């Protein structure tokens, strides 16, 4: 039943995707508006099929239908309800289903948004691209990533999802948020391709899609921050970002998407950087496909990656096709992409945004090189070289500092050209604010060139953002905080919180292993003090549920009880550490057991204290808030040509 319903849903979505492509192609060729308007019908058909397939799989997981191979490999009678639902995206085939569902949802959102313009060739070509992407992913579900394979001899129970995916509720929300970001970039990419095909290379299509880009970027940001939070609280190593290839796979499109959101303002204002913006959009979407290849092909070793599968070559081929087509289209339209406008002065808003683009591109190149170099080395020499955290830290730290400087200077620069007097008057207050932050950090004991420079630049950029927001509210009241420019300043404040949290936690964290006893004895105290926190061992703990057995320790830290533990799940043999974490505005204390409590009453605990780390999560929330305020239109709007302006169709 579940297999038949699910397969029927996938077939329906596949037929809808193919039908949409053929119908729109005929309509575009014959200039038939009636056929172009049918994109709405096909989009709902694809969504209906995707919903049916996902509902069938969730039903199979909830009812423990082990006749499906996917449920037999990933489900279990003992899996808690929340994680049982989240099992849908815990493995390869289910994650592709989630991708298809979200992509179908975006397709329907587009046809609803442009319901009065479906006969516009630009919208029609964009829908052709979206249907083509749908066709690829639903095709995977009928081929090598089929989630509805049936077992002839189903087991009575399954192993359940990876134990690491059952230790924190964030795993129910982190992947969907990432996918909403990943897949959301399909919309602006589709319109970019449509603009290249139709020759409508002005600024109208940018205005129509900028909110789609911002929403996708917001979800990707939230997903990355949620993943860092999960990593900090589940893996027990005290960190939140290890430059893991899968982490980098989500960070790469975030970098290029961020660069695009900045430089698109130059094109809207002055008609410049058209090639840059098209290239950034195409690169962002291409990197989402490359990231999908890295995480789902089995070519990399990662705590996040899925096992080896047959879809790797298909994803790589799809990535290559996207790059080939987009580069060809940009080259074809090269003459029409030239802008008559030029940057009047490098000391201007557009000059700063161009430099910002270059720095973000360099950042993305450094991360991409470190991520794929082991694969390149293995392909060329049959030896896999490890590119570790030191490479990324050494290469990206100076780039990050340059970006902080640009965040301080760019918002205060006028368009076209800035005079020395203008710079002095606009940077004076931010400069003093940054100096004050630096003095405060030194007074609190901060040392080291890199972190102190980061604190100063963060204060400098924060002063510039506060100046912009103060002027906006003074002119327009609290309504002045909405709109892209001022919402962007709030996003900047969130980024600066994250920058300060990273600089402080990386530079001033303390890690210590301590052997503690309930009753103090020679060489085994009951209490230890680490960076002002008094940690006392109160005794062992144990707990048993239907899903897992847990043995741990109870410790008192400043009147708060911590209970780090080691877990073993019923259907697995691997022991999984469960850290205990408490975050305050000042610091984070993380305790994890290095081994089970000993028979002599002692326990060995790893203690990690990291200052200001909670501001990383707060900063992520502020970035999400700023993104929402940027989506909401400001009081002053600039009239632009509608997307449906009549032009000739170029096929």
Structural class: alpha+beta
Please count the beta strands (DSSP E, at least 2 residues each): 10
* Overall shape: flat
The mean pLDDT is: 86
Q: List low-pLDDT spans.
A: 303-307, 636-651
**Residue fraction in strands:** 5-15%
The ordered H/E elements are: HHHHHHHHHHHHHHHHHHEEEEEEEEEEH
Describe the structure in your own words.
The structure is a single chain. The chain has 651 residues and is α+β, with helices and mostly antiparallel strands. Among the domains are: 96 residues, no CATH class; 102 residues, no CATH class. It has 19 helices and ten strands. Strands 2, 3, 4, 5, 6 and 7 form a six-stranded antiparallel sheet that branches. A four-stranded antiparallel sheet has the order 1-10-9-8, with helices on one face. The C terminus is likely disordered.
SSE topology:
Layout lengths: L1 H29 L2 H4 L2 H24 L6 H6 L6 H6 L5 H22 L7 H22 L31 H11 L1 H13 L5 H31 L10 H26 L3 H23 L15 H21 L16 H33 L7 H21 L10 H24 L5 H28 L7 H25 L1 E8 L9 E4 L2 E12 L3 E10 L2 E3 L2 E5 L5 E4 L1 E4 L3 E7 L8 E10 L2 H18 L20
Antiparallel strand pairs: 1-10, 2-3, 3-4, 4-5, 4-6, 6-7, 8-9, 9-10
Question: Key terms for this structure?
Answer:
59% helix; alpha+beta; four-stranded antiparallel beta sheet; six-stranded antiparallel beta sheet; 651 residues; 10% strand
Question: What's the gist of this structure?
Answer:
With 651 residues, the protein is α+β, with helices and mostly antiparallel strands.
């Amino acid at each position: 039943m579940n297999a038949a319903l699910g397969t029927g849903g996938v077939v329906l979505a596949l037929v809808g995707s193919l039908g949409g492509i053929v119908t729109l192609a005929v309509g575009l060729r014959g200039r038939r508006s009636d056929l172009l308007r049918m994109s709405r019908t096909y989009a709902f058909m694809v969504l209906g099929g995707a919903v049916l397939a996902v509902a069938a799989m969730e039903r199979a997981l909830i009812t423990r239908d082990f006749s499906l191979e996917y449920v037999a490999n990933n489900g279990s009678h003992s899996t808690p309800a929340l994680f049982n639902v989240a099992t849908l995206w815990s493995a390869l085939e289910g994650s592709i289903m989630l991708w298809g569902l979200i992509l179908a949802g975006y397709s329907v959102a587009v046809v609803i948004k442009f319901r009065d313009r479906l006969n516009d060739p630009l919208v029609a070509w964009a829908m052709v691209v979206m249907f083509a992407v749908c066709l690829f992913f639903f095709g995977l579900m009928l081929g090598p990533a089929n989630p509805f394979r049936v077992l002839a001899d189903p087991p009575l129970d399954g192993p359940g999802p990876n134990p690491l995916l059952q230790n924190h509720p964030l795993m129910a929300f982190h992947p969907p948020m990432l996918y909403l970001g990943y897949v959301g970039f399909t919309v602006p990419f589709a319109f970019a391709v449509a603009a290249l095909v139709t020759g409508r290379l002005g600024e109208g299509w940018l205005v129509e899609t900028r909110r789609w880009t911002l929403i996708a970027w917001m979800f990707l940001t939230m997903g990355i921050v949620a993943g860092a939070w999960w990593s900090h609280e589940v893996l027990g190593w005290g960190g939140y970002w290890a430059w893991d290839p899968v982490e980098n796979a989500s960070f790469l499109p975030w970098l290029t998407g961020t660069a695009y959101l900045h430089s698109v303002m130059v094109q809207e204002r002055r008609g410049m950087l058209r090639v840059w913006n098209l290239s950034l959009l195409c690169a962002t979407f291409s990197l989402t496909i490359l990231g999908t290849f890295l995480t789902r092909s089995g070519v990399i070793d990662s705590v996040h990656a899925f096992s080896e599968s047959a879809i790797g070559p298909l994803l790589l081929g799809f990535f290559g096709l996207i790059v080939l087509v987009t580069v060809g289209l940009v080259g074809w339209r090269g003459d029409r992409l030239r802008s008559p406008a030029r940057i009047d002065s490098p000391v201007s808003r557009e000059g700063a945004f161009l430099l910002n683009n270059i720095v973000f591109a360099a950042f993305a190149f450094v991360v991409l090189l470190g991520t794929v170099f082991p694969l390149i080395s293995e392909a060329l020499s049959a030896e896999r070289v490890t590119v570790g955290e030191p490479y990324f830290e050494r290469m990206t730290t100076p780039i990050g500092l340059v970006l902080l400087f640009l965040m301080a200077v760019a918002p205060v620069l006028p368009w076209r050209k800035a005079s020395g007097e203008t710079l002095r008057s606009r940077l004076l207050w931010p400069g003093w604010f940054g100096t004050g932050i630096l003095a405060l950090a030194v007074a609190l004991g901060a040392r080291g060139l890199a972190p102190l420079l980061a604190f100063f630049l963060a204060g400098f950029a924060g002063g510039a953002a506060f100046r912009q927001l103060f002027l906006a509210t003074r002119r327009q009241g609290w309504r002045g905080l909405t709109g892209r420019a001022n919402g962007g300043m709030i996003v900047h404040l969130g980024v600066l919180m994250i920058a300060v949290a990273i600089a402080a936690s990386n530079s001033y964290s303390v890690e210590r292993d301590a052997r503690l006893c309930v009753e103090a004895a020679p060489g085994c105290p009951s209490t230890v003090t680490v960076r002002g926190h008094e940690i006392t061992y109160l005794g062992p703990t144990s707990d048993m549920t239907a899903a897992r057995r847990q043995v741990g320790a109870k410790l008192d830290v400043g009147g708060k009880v911590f209970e780090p533990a080691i877990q073993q799940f019923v259907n697995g043999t691997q022991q999984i550490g469960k850290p205990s974490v408490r975050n305050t505005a000042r610091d984070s204390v993380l305790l994890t057991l290095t081994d089970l409590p000993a028979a002599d009453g002692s326990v060995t605990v790893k203690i990690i204290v990291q200052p200001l780390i909670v501001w990383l999560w707060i900063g992520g929330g502020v970035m999400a808030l700023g993104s929402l305020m940027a989506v909401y239109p400001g009081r002053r709007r600039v009239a632009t040509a509608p997307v449906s302006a009549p032009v000739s169709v170029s096929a």
